[in-house]
Every structure is written in structure tokens, then in C-alpha cells.
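Our consortium's second objective concerns turning raw sequence data into structural hypotheses that experimental partners can test. To show how far this objective has progressed, the report includes one record in full. It was chosen at random from the queue rather than selected for favorable results. The single chain below, 349 residues long, was entered without modification.
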Amino acid sequence: MRALRRLALAAMLASVSAAQADVGLLMRPDVQRFIDEQVASGEVSRAELETVFANVDAKPNVITIMDKPSTARPWYQFRPNFYNEKLLQEGVAFWQKNEATLQRAQQQFGVAPEMIVAILGIETRYGRVTGSFRLADVLSTLAFDYPRRAEFFRGELAEFFRLAHSENVNALSLKGSYAGAIGMPQFMPSSFRKWAVDFDGDGHRDIWNNPADAIGSVGNYFQQHGWLVGDDVVVPVDVTPGAAIDELVADKFNLHYTVAELKAKGIVPRAPVRDEALAVLVPLEVAPGDTRYWLGLNNFYTITRYNKSTLYAMVAQELAQEIRNRYLAVRYAPVPAVANQDASAPAVN
């Protein structure tokens, strides 16, 4: 049986030009084992998988991108890329256009409209920049030729195939980022499978082209990751001399301390906050050599589940608040008074 399968695969590969694909990929033992595992799950067919792998074009350049040392930019350099006039204006316009859907998402998931709007703006500029890489190419490359994170990306590749099958789309047609993130909210395939929703009820979870599904999916993701309705995101603080700043900052992605415990360690909130609330200490270099501190509360932590970066979480919060301010200013702007003129009076030339 295996001999017959190899002959069939060889015939298939002979029909695929080298210019179109990495024709050796399908014949690799590790790829064949992966195919066997996925077929055994009963969710995808061997024919589907073999057709895709026979047409995959390996992208070694994405490994180079993944392996570039990530030099974290300071806050004052990071912030202008995402908190700027263009994104603010686009955010208000997106909210105005999708007001009813955002209101429904808030009612269902408890997530403020401005946060959903900010996330979609930061991620893809409201769907304009969703990635031009074929997902089958980049995920296959990372799954089989990137040992450092091969296990993670094989899991994402498996989820990708299930996604394509369940949504009845051609796996070779789907595109995304160099790391395999997809659609307006830039979900990884596993996130799509778990948290994407069909928010307009048309039978598809189209986070690529359908703002309603993108809005609902972000709202669902935040709710499922612990977003607290109406709670604060950050609170500015002062740090007393001698506070164990390095120890606290090193634990910035874990909610291990209550506000009361942080106060006992020398962290002094500059605004009211519940002593029992969980929080992390967040340092931001607001200007060269000038570092200031905030408490990131539960909702700040939730944003870092979406993107594991305190800079991302802070800029999402700031962008959301200013978009809200501008949206409300426009929505509730006073109507200019119109002079009361007697329609029967003759016009004055």
C-alpha cells in the first residue's frame, strides 16, 4: 500500500513544476507522518493535504525574519507608529460606520467599542494590511524547517487545514502575515478555531472581509480572556526610592500581586484603585532617560493575552480612549442654530 502511495505521489509531483512549488516537501518522511496524523483525526482528507503540500512554495525568508533579534523600541519611539492622526480619524470613521455592530458586541461580550476599534486599527488598519503571504507556504516552512518553534507551528498548520476545511475555502488561496496570522484581527489559526465568531449569522466566520465577524471575534476573544466590564485598564503610579522595581517589572505578564501588596512594596497609585485588584507594574520610557510607571490592571493583562507586549497594551488603551473622545465629540456635537426667517418675506438682494 505504501509503495502504491509513493508511486501516486510521484505522479502527482511530476505534474507540479518546480517553479510553482517545493516539490520535495510532500515526499519528506516528517511531512508524511504529519499527513497521517491529520487524516487519523478524521477532520481532513489525505487528498486535501497532499494537494496542498504538492503546491507549497517554501519561504526560507520568513525564518530569517523570525530569527532577527527583537530589539524593543522605547515607548517614545513605539507610540507614534500607532497613536497618530491617521489612525485616530480612521478609528472614528470605522466606529461611525459600524456603530450598531459595535454596540451589539458590547452588549454580548462586555467589551467597550473603542477597544475593539483600536485593536482592529493597530492590527491591520481596518483590514487594509492583512498580509500577502500564502498561509500554506509560511506555516509549512515554519512547521518543518524552523526547529526552534516547529512544535508550535505544526499545531498551527494543523489548525489551518481544519479552518480551510470547515470554512469550505481553498487552503492555497488564504493569505496572512509572515508568521501565519490572518484577517482583520490577525488571529493565528488556533485562535480562529477557538474564538472567531459568525457575528452576522451568514454561516461563515469571515474575519478577512466582514467587519461584523471581525468585531465579534475580537469581542469574544477579550471576553474569553477575562475582560472585566467597565473596569480600568491602567493607573499612573509613583515609585518610592528603594522599591524592588526590577523584580516587579520582570513579572509584568503575570497577575501575581494585589494593589495592596504593590503598595506595600513602595508603589503609590496616583488615582483611586481597589486594594484587592490584581495588577502589574509597567515602566515606559516617555522620553530619553525619563521612565514613568503605571499599574496595569486586569484589562491591561487581557490585552497582553492578545499581543504579549506592554507597549502594545498601552498604545491600544491610549488609542481607544482618544478614539472614544473624538467619536463622542462628533456624535453629540450641538447642532448649529438656524436663523428664523419668515418664508413669506421677500428676499433681499
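The partners drew two points from this record. Strands lie at 133-134, 175-176, 234-239, 257-258, 267-269, 278-287, 290-296. The first helix runs from residue 2 to 14. Both points have been shared with the crystallography group to help prioritize constructs.
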